[in-house]
Amino acid sequence: MNVKRHSAFGLVALLLVSTSPVALGQTADLAETAEAQAALNGGAHLSSGTQPASVETCWANWKSKENLQDGKNEKKNGYFVYVAHEQAPVDEAVGSRNWLVGRNAAFSYAELNARKALAEAIRSTMRSSRSAAARILGGDDAPPSLRPVVEQLSIVDKSRVLADKALDAEIKKFDPQWAGGTEAQRREAIATEQLRIEQSIERSAEMFASGAFTVVQCEGPSQQDGGKYHVLTGLIWTPKLAGIAETVWNPTLTLQKEVPQPPIRQQFEAIKTENPDWLAYTMGARVFTDENGERVVVGFGVAPQSSLMPADRSRASLAAMAAIQRFVSERVLATTKSKEAYEKRGLSDDSTRSFNLDAFNDEVKAQAADLSLKGAAEILSWRGEHPWSKSKMQVVAVAWSQRWASDAEAVGRALGATEQRMKQQGGLPKAPAVVDGAAGGVPAAAPVKAGAAATTSDF
Q1: What residues contact 20, with CB distance under 8 A and at least 6 apart?
Q2: With 0-12 CB in 10 A as exposed, 13-18 as middle and 19+ as buried, what is 395?
């Protein structure tokens, strides 16, 4: 597929559009601009002959091609695009029956953390606190107020001695020369001073990530993790993409049409010509432009193969529809907590002991709203094996467009009217009752591969 370069002016002009009704309803004379020669916007990808050394290089190549960097990219007239990426290792051995499941989990983990990065870039709430405490301790005897506590502790000490004797007896079974620990071993040095430093940092970020989608997906060895197989996801979000996402649930919103492209299936064939394995490396949602200049949101779902092909397709189709749902209405809540605690004790024998009590917690929650997805249809199904791991897989692509949703609504109304007439005339057959319980070669190294990516030329 011939992917053509855009002029700087053309890239800026179509990169982002405000989501106001006025701006979304505007029509522009695109025939006089460089965008009239735009390449297939959903089909930017690496060809089968191009194999970067690492997933990091794959990601860097895409950013260089799109003239973008991680974070907020300012454009003219107040337009901007947020870019984020994350990667995760596949911790299953090649040949494992769970390799594909582990790879899909790595994609989900990487995509969630990329969405977290977007949320943190837009709005983060920070909390932090620090404290330092020094104590001087002296003597073995407790003050009078604590003597009852010490007496209770002495009972524990006695039980510990008995336990030690029992342990000595067990050790003597293996070492007849064992005579028990020395006095120095049984009696630790007394702490005479203590220094404790604590620091707590907490960050939370929340974003309604409507319109954020995986623009490129790279798989292969990571140069940062000793060549381990990684899945890298690159996400973008723009106000224009938020407008596209809104059309899925708001039929009254009308977007301006873009430069018409070949039908979606022809675009898929063009991608396949350049990269025969692209479906094996594509998950999540993508945004294409069809032959009418209208936006088409495509979700790609992957499932492991079983002996039941219809069930595999259904499972993959479910994942594909979920990808569209997350593109439309996913809220991301990210919480990161770091607690650092360092403690040093000086002992009566002039020795010191230190303790590292650090703790770190990183949690990302994403919740997608219920969505009535009218007009979504399966447009592609592929059953094969992952080119590197040889894991057998089922891939399904489900597409949605505003025009298809309108057609589905019209067909639904027509069928509903027919059903009412049949009910009135007694010609509607009864649905059958449902009875519960009815029977019914391993490669040595991974090349870096990329699935279908999207150019940001008109996002």
Answers
A1: none
A2: buried
